[in-house]
Amino acid sequence: YYGDATSNLAQFRHTLNAVRDIDAQVWVTSHHRAVITDRDAFLTALQAFTDKLDQRADKLLGMLHHEPQSLEALVAQRLVYPLGYEAAFVNDVERRMIEQHLRELVDAGQVRCVDASHGLFARA
Are 13 and 53 in contact (CB under 8 A)? Predict the structure, then answer.
């Protein structure tokens, strides 16, 4: 999970890759999934979850397609949670996850900060 204040998306991706090689008989995941006892089923679920991270990055690039956006504007558009889903934690989690994806995309040269004083990001 990379939505906590101390989470790190790069480390999370590293962990997702590392657990593939663990020789286990049982896998217990979060997000209310059942206990998995089949390695192929675990690897399939793990790949789907890993793909979700890339889908979020692609969605974020799409959100930046037409014009520069501030972090708060991106949070309001929802990268992770569906529009209309409201809970006390949602904006904070969205903000942290979007910040990490932005950092990753900036490092990859796909996004740039176009106005640091207003925190505006655009596709590179």
Answer: yes
